[in-house]
Amino acid sequence: MPVGTNATVKALRAADVEALGYRLILSNTYHVYLRPGIEVIAAAGGLHEFMGWNHNILTDSGGYQVFSLAPFRKITEEGVQFRSHIDGSLHDLSPEKVVHIQTVFHSDILMPLDVCTPWGISYQESVEALKTTTQWLDRSVKTWKKTQQDGSKGMLFAIVQGNFFRDLRVESVENTLKYDTPGVALGGLSVGEPQEVFLEYLAYTTALLPVQKPRYVMGIGSPDYILAAIENGIDMFDCILPTRTGRTGRVFTRDGHLSLKKEERRFDFKPIDSECSCSVCRSHTRAYLRHLFKTQEILCSILATYHNLYFLEELVRNARQAIKEHRFSSFKAVFLKRYFSQKEE
Hints:
3 domains; 3-stranded antiparallel β-sheet; 14 helices; about 50% helix
């Protein structure tokens, strides 16, 4: 899922994202709730109409942003109180309110409020966070079921937490599956832990989940993490990485990341990736993109972002085909061997 934090995938029109083949994007409850505000989205008829996107939208709960952006936050049994990073105004979010906001948005997939915990906290802190998350999930599900009775079609995905403690992961999975939500998300991964720890807990937690439900890992967007997730049976993932790196002059190629801003790009008239068939690689050179970046032209962000999203969509599409043909393991090995075969250009 490309990330559309502020009701837009940065640097691209909705039509461009659609043309790339995407049919599901992520938008952020925290940001859209603060600006333009729930009243504006309601008046527009929902988030799809507001942003001109005719396909599916997943909205996260905003919990991660509360914990990472808000200059002040206080967690209670009732919910979380925080100050806006925009103007310092005081706000309260409860599990019920978070579901209500996403229902007003007409989100196709809703995420419940949970306590986001970073890598390195203590066992006791993780126990307390999981206890709160579990209590909040119960209230979120009750509110969501009421919205279903009122005609909402949005699907709630419960979130597994437990930090990096196996017994807490098991407890969280057991608690989560009791609610039989349409899908399950794996929280508490890609939060600063070493890659080997990520891979360990990705495999361990996913193995505990039913295969018939969509499984979603939040916050991964590099090819190696994506392929590892797919290998472990993950169906969905999102990350700001492809759009953010595009805006900073870094693009994906089959031979690894490439920096457009380096001096040697000045006379580099090759496409970003000679094997890529996207419109950017067919029409523009690395030298031209470097020029756009150095002169701070908006077009650089547009073209680099388009290429990065094309690259990842093609990667996932090829992975899907490899699964159908029972050759995913070899596909992954060959791709990553080349991807990491040389230092970043």
